[in-house]
Amino acid sequence: MGHRAIPRAYTEKLEKNHRIKVLLIDNSVQHTGAYHSILCFIRELHEKVAFYFAVPNGCWTNNPDIPQDRLQIFRFIELNKSLKVIWYLPRLIINLVKIRGLTRRWDIDVVHVNDLYNMLGVCLKIVKPSIRVVYHVRLRKGSYVGPMYNTWIRLIVRFADAIVPVSNCVKNELRIKSEKVTRIYDAVDSSWESVPPVSFDRQQDLRFLYVANFIPGKGQDFALKAFELVKQKNITLRFVGATGKSGKNRAYLESLKRYVVNKKLEARVSFTEYQIDMADQLAWAHVALNFSESESFSMVCLEALASGRPVIATRCGGPEEIIRDDENGFLVENRDIASMAQRVSHLAEHPDLVLELSSNAKVDLMEKFGIELLSGKLYQVYES
Fold first, then answer.
1. Which among 167, 183, 199 is the end of a domain?
2. DSSP states of 139-203
3. CA 201 – CA 248 distance, rounded (Å)
4. Number of domains in the chain
């Protein structure tokens, strides 16, 4: 969805009057829920915080809202099973030298690392104890290399000044009893209210929208299998997402497209490339879907509800903290294709229920996930 741009004039003002300078270290190269959430916080806090960026080439460098003179390009290597892992330590040392230099040049007060697998924050704290280091934890335990997770957590607990899990399910998996831990949900702002409300003409199809990058485990395959089971023909499903540069993700997308052809679902299912402004996609949809196998949060669910679209999602972590079952959407068991199909079928048979769920979508949403509340909590973490 398009958001208001950050006023360019604020950069000069903050040079003289800033209260906090924050260096954000982030590995994102694609548009993800975490990326959009960070932007939301940056926009809300721009009058109190001067943000600087240590990021790879990709979504950050192509964003007109980000002052390019406050951005430094980094090459990050993540620990995985590829041969690139042998370069992890040398790259970490190189990046540490660069990061330390940036903190001096920009007179940084806080370094905010946007996930626990990036050890730059820990290393910086070791060589520069005076700087405040904040770690955001945005993925669930199962997303990491098993033996490394506990090691990373121990190091972060030892050296970080604050740890911010993105949801209760992430916080519970950390198993940390420490005053350093502050759960802060991802947030939405009022701009989503500009999306037109759901309207339904009984002569048209009931339209379902599935927004997620095409990554195995994100659940698009479950959605297709569920739609195959639904007997009603007055339903349409649109997938919106990207594969990035991953060959594995491209192969996954191709397998989904082959499934559509083999099952003769072409008239009911379509694929659309990811768009930065999702307002038009949500305006098109009546209902949003998310059948992921594991979610630490889910900006897709939150943004859909904020635009007045009910959501059907799996009990896979984060969505359970966002969706009120039978009130603004439905929660189904993880990987339960029959239950997914049953909920889709039920809405196809009772379209008036879509309007009822839609009217409840925004109830209490801003009280729990509003940007003013949650940005205030993040600012307190920076300020402490």
1. 183
2. S-GGGS-HHHHHHHHHHHHHH-SEEEESSHHHHHHHT---TTB------B-GGGGGSPPP---TT
3. 40
4. 2
Q: Which residues pair with 63 in a beta bridge?
A: none
Q: What are the start-end ranges of the H helices in 27-137?
A: 33-45, 88-105, 120-127
Q: Which of 362, 292, 290 is nearest to 327 (CA)?
A: 362
136 and 160 Cβ atoms separated by less than 8 Å: no
Task: Identify whether 383 is part of a domain.
Answer: no
CA 143 to chain centre: 14
User: Is 341 part of a structural domain of the chain?
Assistant: yes
DSSP bridge partners of 330: 312
Element containing residue 47 per DSSP (H, E): none
- Let me know whether 44 and 91 are in one domain: yes
| pTM, 2 dp | 0.90
DSSP characters over 264-282? T-TTTEEEEE--S--HHHH
Question: Domain with 270 in it: what CATH number?
Answer: 3.40.50.2000
Domain ranges, residue 44:
10-183
Average pLDDT per run of 10 along the chain, which is 384 residues long?
A: 48 58 92 86 94 92 86 80 65 94 97 91 97 95 82 94 97 93 94 90 90 96 97 94 91 98 96 84 96 96 96 98 97 98 96 95 92 97 94
